[in-house]
Amino acid sequence: MNAGPQIDLSPVDSPMLPFQFKAKSRGLIPKGLTLAAVLIIVLMLFIILFNIFLGGIGVISWDFLTQPPENGMESGGIFPAIFGTVALVFLMVLAVIPVGVLTAIYLQEFTHPDSILTRMIRVAVNNLAGVPSIVFGLFGLGFFVGFIGTGIDSIFYHSGRPVWGQPAIIWASLTLSLMALPVVIVSTEEALRAIPRELKEASYALGATKLQTIIRVIVPQALPGIFTGAILGVSRGAGEVAPIMFTGAAYYLPHLPTKLTDQFMVLGYHIYVMATQSPNIDATKPILYGTVLVLLVLTILLNSVAILMRSRIRSRRVNV
Amino acid sequence: MVQYKFKPKSRIREFLGEKLIALNALAAVIGILLIFIFIFKEALPIFTSSEVRQEAGIGKMLFKQEFYKGREPKWSWQPNSDVPKYSLYPLFLGTLKAAIVAMLFAVPLGVGAAIYSSEFAPRRAREIIKPVIELLAGIPSVVLGFFALIVLATILQNTLGLTYRLNALNAGIALGITVIPVIYTVAEDAMTAVPRSLRDAAIALGANPWQVSISMVLPAALPGIAAGVILGFGRAIGETMIVLMASGNAAIVSGSFVDSIRTFSATIAAEMAEVVFGSPHYNVLFFIGTLLFIFTFMINLGGDFVLMRLREKIQGRTK
User: Mutate which of B41, B178, B240 to disrupt the A interface (most A C-beta within 10 Å)?
Assistant: First the structure.
């Protein structure tokens, strides 16, 4: 667009036109109604957060965070579930970051935005983000456990007892990583778009190849965005239950997972089973609230960090 | 000396690197294809195996069945009874009821908040609203399910005097909370994308700020708002943990919104763990998964298409 002469187009106050007053007061209704919608949403968020905070803060203690459950979940802590959640999202990030970042680099640096391949990838990414989480669970069971896992077993193990072909932390984290892929791609792309053209041109002018430019200039510049994507992915993955309930999560295990083929306890699944299948809900309720609080604090902290980082990336793009 | 020729080694590296990146970029496409193939594969016996078809054919899933001699034919989902019953209609009805409540709850709030933050909000208020909505979107669905199960259900039952504690209304409201951010984000994007020149033209013609937004921005952004609603509906259909925990999970055929319901997604989640591998029941659950996948895929394609057209239209106008 041509930058023409700047003309101030803000409305001029003209008290000579009486209809403006009428129009102004009528304008209060839509403004008030839409503001009410905002306030209801904010209020809902605070009620939920407040309720869970009040219900859960009483049981939070060092022991609660570091001890295993006892007495059929009626006392003790939730350490194995915290450990399982951290291990799960750690493996997930290891799997999703390289694939997501390279996809974003391909979309931003290698192809024309209107090419058929780019469009296909974008449609796939958008759709992947919309696939219901329970469908990811079915996929993880059918593909990772049933196809890949059983396949590995039939080639390398002949004991008849499944080793890889059963629900395990590796399959759960791979299922989650497919689910988190769009988050990482979108966030990395945003960071890539914020990189000033001049930096790349300077790199090419110094004789660097495309690959060298990507490794030495583009990826380091995009690191905050990649990091944001990883955090958003982790916060999503830490709270998801449906994709892991058939692919590796267990309600109670006496041991922490030590191998990739172990099952694991996880906060979200722990909440689900305690809330719906506990024989004595009144006895487990404090621990249940505490577990919810831990999960909520974890996801909100991660989300807040991601939101802050993203707003910093965005403001940098405006400044350059 | 300035080196201006690549060594052959680095040229190979360059070629391989580029191909590796291109291959990687196909991961999302391959992922979508694999999801469809592997879910549909397990659902396939419903069409191909005569044994499975006899117990759970398409006709038996869709139409009323006379399960016991002399009794009235009806729709029923009881896959574990002596006479397994696989009618999908009760599940369809439950899914629809929860989604309707969710949309009735989420559309006014989501669209309203989007209008406020793009049209009326001072800059500072907007900077607060957006992160609040993002926080709402970040609450894990199992936490919302827990809240609906323990807190919301009790409040609703006490204030409305309901027979069932867990019902379509309760699950639908909690579901609505996850749908609000979807609608808000898409609708707000669409409204802020309306070019400044359009607003300026309206102002130049003497319109007030609110007249600008009601008669100018809203109509221009309407397809975007509609896309947000469509995508939100897709989310409501596919969401699992909330309905699994807060809906009561009883497959009742009724028009009442305060009866318990059982949805497609919750059925898969509740029954997959105990199902016999390779049984007709197992195939039916994967068939339901296929239906969910196809439905949400269509919804997403539709929503994306509307948004793409809108973007082209708006950009076309500024040229």
Answer: B240
Residue of chain B minimizing CA distance to A29: B210
In sequence order, the 6+-apart residues with CB closer than 8 A to the CB of B142 are A239, A241, A268, A269, A271, A272, A295, B241, B245
What pLDDT score does A14 carry?
47
Number of domains in chain B: 1
The answer as to whether B77 is a domain residue is no
Would you call A1 an interface residue with chain B, using a CB distance cutoff of 8 Å?
yes
- A17 versus B306: the higher-pLDDT residue is B306
Sole residue written with tokens 């580029």? B18
Q: Tell me the Cα Rg of chain A.
A: 25
| Residue in B with minimal Cα distance to A248 | B273
pLDDT at A15 over 80: no
**pTM summary value:** 0.88
Inter-chain residue contact A242 with B129, CB threshold 8 Å:
no
């577990």: which residue's tokens? A291
Separation between Cα atoms, residue B266 and residue B175, nearest integer Å: 13
pLDDT of residue A20: 47
CB atoms within 10 A of CB A49: 19
Domains and CATH numbers, chain A: 83-319 (1.10.3720.10)
ipTM of the complex: 0.89
Residue B231: give the domain boundaries.
85-318
Residues 6+ away with beta carbon under 8 Å from A19: none
CATH for B290 = 1.10.3720.10
